[in-house]
Description:
The structure is a single chain. The chain has one domain (about 1-75). Helices cover about 75% and strands about 0% of the residues. It contains 4 helices and no strands. It has helices at about 1-30, 35-40, 50-55, 65-75. The protein is elongated.
Amino acid sequence: MRTIRILERILTAIPLMLGVAVLVFFFMRLSPGDPVDIIMGQGGAVSAGEMEQLRREFNLDRPLHIQLAIFLQELARGDLG
Length: 81
């Protein structure tokens, strides 16, 4: 009986954690400004080619649904950075 209750709670928590992860992803993407500009600063010290390379490295050049899939895959592996 107690084992069933624990399993129910775990199975209930999985969709909740997935939902929170999706919300976090979209809030990060909806924040104003380009993430690469924010990371590197808007001072112009980095060339346009380097900025484009960073966008590819962070998968910002891909469609939003692909970015979400990559984000969830990395999250499942524990890659938070």
